[in-house]
Write a structure and sequence with these properties.
45% of the residues lie in helices and 15% in strands. The chain contains 38 helices and 28 strands. The protein has four domains: 20-247, Calcium-transporting ATPase, cytoplasmic transduction domain A (Distorted Sandwich); 293-357 and 780-1033, Calcium-transporting ATPase, transmembrane domain (Up-down Bundle); 363-388 and 631-771, Rossmann fold (3-Layer(aba) Sandwich); 394-506 and 513-627, Calcium-transporting ATPase, cytoplasmic domain N. Keywords: ATP-binding, Cell membrane, Ion transport, Magnesium, Membrane, Metal-binding, Nucleotide-binding, Potassium, Potassium transport, Sodium, Sodium transport, Translocase, Transmembrane, Transmembrane helix, Transport.
Amino acid sequence: MTTPAIQSDKQTNSTSPSPLPKAPHLLSPEDVAKALSTDPEGLLDEQASSKLSIYGRNELEDGGGPSAIRIFIKQIVNAMMLVLILAMIVTFVIKSWISAGVVVAVVVMNITVGFVQEYAAEKTMESLRTLSSPTARVVRGSQTKVIVTAELVPGDVVELKVGDTIPADIRLFECMNFETDEALLTGESLPVAKEAAIIFKEDQDVGVGDRLNLAYSSATVTKGRAKGYAYATGMNTEIGHIARSLKGKNSRFRRPVPKESGKVTVGAYARAAFGTVKDTAFRFLGLNVGTPLQRKLSKLALILFAIAVVFAIIVLAANKFSNNSEVIIYAVATALSMIPASLVVVLTITMSMGTKRMVKRNVIVRNMNALESLGAVTNICSDKTGTITQGKMVAKRAYIPAYGTFTVDDIRDPNSPTDGNITFSPLSPVDADARMHNDNRVDPTKVSDVTTHTKIPAFESFLRVASLCNLATVHQGPNGQWAARGDPTEIGIQVFASRFRFKTVTSSADSEKQWVQLAEFPFDSDVKRMSVIFRRLSGGSDVVFMKGAVERILGACTTIRTKEGDVAITEQHKTDILANMEVLAGEGLRVLALALREWTEQVDEWRGYPRENVEKEMTFLGLIGLYDPPRPESYPSVKKCHQAGITVHMLTGDHKATAQAIAQQVGIIPKALYKIPKHILKAVVMTAGEFDQLSDDEVDALPVLPLVLARCAPQTKVRMVNALHRRGCFVAMTGDGVNDSPSLKEADVGIAMGTGSDVAKGAADIVLTDDNFASILNAIEEGRRIFDNLKKFVLHILAENVCQACTLLIGLAFKDSTGLSVFPLSPVEVMWIILITSGFPDFGLGMISATPDVMTRPPHDRRRGVFTIEVLLDIAVYGIWMSALCLASFVLVVYGWGSDDLGNNCNSEYNASCDTVFRARATTFTCLTWFALFLAWEMIDLRRSFFRMQPGSKKYFTQWAIDAWKEKFLFWSVIFGFVTIFPILYIPVLNEKVFAHTGISWEWGIVFVEALLFFLGVEAWKWAKRVWARHYLKDDVARDPENDLEAGGAFSRYTTVMTTDTVASTNEKGRKGLGKK
C-alpha cells in the first residue's frame, strides 16, 4: 500500500536543485558517488563542512526553536497571572490609584522575570533536544565517526545496522540481508528487502516504496547491515516532502466521531465542541500539560485559588460587606496571599536547570517525567558489557582442542595486534589448572615466531573463522597508530587473529582476493550466534564459518576437530569443552566458541534462506576467551547505590561463571559467597533458562530475585521488570539493542546507551552519553537533588502563604472606632513579599546543591510525591509560627508600648491618629520579610540545623556562613531582600503613601527579638524531627543490600527479599500500580 503523497512523487527531487543528474534509483552507486564528489572512503571533514553550509542542517522544519511571542503570551494567559490582572482591574475600578500602580508594577515585573527565565529555560531545553537527537555512523577520511544526524550532508558514506533509524535518503552500494521498515513513509507493514546492485531504467514507473536500491530517512533497519551514499537531507528527503505537505494541518479542535454507518450526528458535534472547550480550559489551567508534578501543582494552585476566594468573602463578611474601597483592597490582598504566583515558573526553571546539570554529568533527559522518577528508583537492572565494564574486549585465552592453549598478557592497547606477549601451552585450561593446584605446574612457552603455529591446520582454521566470521576491521594508520572499527567483541577477536599475521581477506584489488562472501546470518540475541558463508576463489569450495555462545555452538556441532582429526562429538567431548569453558569464565572471561563446515548445496537466492538449514552439522574448532575489564568507577558506584538503598542487578548475555566473576569484582554480589545459605545463593545467581522455567508464582516465592542473571534474553528482562514490580519496586533498566525496547518501556525509568540503537533511545527516558554505570548513579543523585529542591521551594512558598493568610484573617479582629478592620499588613506589603521579597529566594532554593545525606537516604515514595506528611506538617508549623510572631509584633507595638489606639481611617492614608498603627504595620512587615528570608536559608536542609549542616565540620561558629555563601544565588537573593527593606521603610512618600507604614526606631528591638524567636522555633522543630526520625523512622536510613546478604539472616531488610506470607499483599500493591509508570 502506498500513500497518495508517495504516488505523486517525481523521478527527480522537486524541492531544490539536486546534485544528481537524475533520480538516484536510476543511477549506479559509482555515478552517485561521482555526482556527490565522494567515494567509499567518505568525505573529508573540510568537504563535509562546506556541504553543510550549502545544503543546511539535516533537520525537518519544526518552527525554529523557542518562540519569544509564545512565551510572552504564556506569561500573561495563565491562571496565576490573570488573578493578579483581576486584582489590578479591581484596584482601578475602585480608584485606588496607588495600589493599582503598585499592582501594575508587580505584574510587569512578574511577567518580565518570568519571560526572561522561561525563555532561557526553553533555549536550554532546545540545546538539550539537539544533544538527544539521533546519531549516525558515517565514514569520513577512512575513519568511522558517530555524528549528530543533523550534521550529516549529501555525499556522506553512512553505515547502517539493525535498530538504526536511517538518517537521510541513501543510495545503497553494499547490502547484507538488509531490510527496512518503511511503514511511516509508505504505509507498508512488512519490512522491505533492499538490493544495492539494482539499477532501474527511466522508462520504468517505480514508486518510492519499490525503489529497492534506496533507503529512506526515518525508516528503521529491521535486519542486516548496509552502506550507502546520502543524497538528500532535511526537507529534501521523502519524509521531508510529506512533512511540508502536512505543515499547518495540526489542530487543537476535536473532530466529531461518526457512527458505524458513517453519519455524524448533532450529538457528536456537541461532544466534540465540549471536549475542545474542556481541553482548552485544562490547558489554560495547566491540568493536562507538563509533567505529573507540574499538573499536580497546577491542581494545587486551582485549589488555593478557590480558598483565596473564600478568604476574600470572609474579609468582606467581617466588615459587613462594606463597599469601602480599603475593605475591598484588603479582601483582594487576602486572596492574593494564598496564590503561589511563582510556583509553576520556579518549577519549570528548576527542572530545566536540572537537565542542564545532567548533561555535564553525561546524562541526557529525553522524558521530563524521568526527573521526578529518578529519585524513587529502588532497583537498577544493568547490562554488563560497556556499562559496568569498559567495553574494550581483549582476547586473552584461546583453546584449540586439536593443538593447545594460547594466552595473551601485558596488553596496553586493545586495538594493537603488536602489543602484548603471547604464550603457548599444549595443555587445556582444565589440565593446566589441575596441575597448578597439584604443584605440578607446566610453564607455557613464549611465542616468538607466530608462523610456526599458523602452519598447524587446526589452528589455521580457528584463525580463519575468527577473521572471516567477523564484521570488525583492524588497520594501522599512517602515523603508526592502530585503529579498529566494529563491535568491541569482534574487534578483540580480529585483533587476536591479526597477532598471528593472519590475512585471508586482502586488499580491494580483485586479483588479490582469496575469499568472497555469499551470505550472512547476523548475531541474534535469541539464537546467540552468527554465521557467514564464504567461497574460496582458489578452489571454488564454499565454507560456513560460525561463532557464538558455547552452548549454542555445541548444539549445532556433530564433529570436533582433535589431534587425531575430525571425529564425531560425544557427550564426553561436550563435558570437557564445558569444563574448559568454566575455567575460562571463572577468570572473568567472556567465552565464545568457533566452528565451521563445508557447504556443498547450491543456493541461487540466499535472501530468506532458513538459517537452521545452514547452522547444523558443524565442526567444533575451539574456544576464545575475551576479557572486558570493569570500569574503575563501577565498584565505588555500586557501593554508593547500596548505601542509597538501591539494589543493582546485572542482566547479561555472558556465561554464568563469567557474570558471577565480574559481579563479585564490582561488588554487585559479595565476594564471600560461602556465607550465604545455599537456597539463597541459588536465587542470587541464575541463568535466564533457570529463571524462565519458573512460573510467576514460583518467581514470587523466591527468597530474593536474582542479582546476576546470565545468558539473558530480551523477554527475560521484561519478566524481571515485572517480577520487581510485583514486589513493589521502582525499576530502572538499561539497554542498547532493538530487542531491549520492550524492557525499556516496561521499566519505570528506561536508560539507553549513547552508542546503542536509535530504537532503544526512542524507547528510553534518559540516554547515557558515555555508556557508564557511574552516570546512572549521577542521574539518580541529580534526580534526588531536584526532587529535594522541589520540596524545599514548595514548602517555602506555601509556608509563607499560610503565614500571610493567618495574619490577615486573624487581623480582622483589629477594628477601629468606625468598626472597620485595620490591616496588620497593607495590600501593597503583601504583594511585595509574595512577588518580590520571596520570589528570588524561591529561584535560589531550586538551584541549591545536594545535601550531604542525599545518597544515604532510601528512595522517596513516588505515590506521595512532594507532599509527604513531613512537608505538610512543616508548612503548617512554620506558617503558624511565623504568623504568631507577626501578630505578636503588631500587638506589642499597639498595645504593649503603644497608645492602644487603632486610629481612624488608617487603611487609606496617614494622619496623626495613625502613627502607632503605621509603626506597628512597619514592624510586622519587617518581621515577615526577615522570616521569609531566614526561612529560605533554613530550607537548605529540612532536618539539619542551619548552624550545623555539615556534621563533620570543625568550624563550629562559622560553618553556617560558609554554607550560606556556598549557594550564591540564594545568598544574594536574601541580601537583596535585606537591602530593599530600608528604602521601603524610610523613603518619604514611598513609605506612607504607597506601603501605608512609616519608619521605625525602638521597634527594631522587637524585630531582633522575634528574629531570634523565629530561629529558636524553627531549630526546635527540626530538632524534634531528628529525634523522631532516630527513634521511630527505622527506614529513614538506607540499608546496604550487600551487607544484608553477607549477614546471612538479615534478609527482611533486603529490598527485594520476599517471604511467602507477603506475596499476596505485594502482588495486590503491584496490581494497584505501585512501581508502575
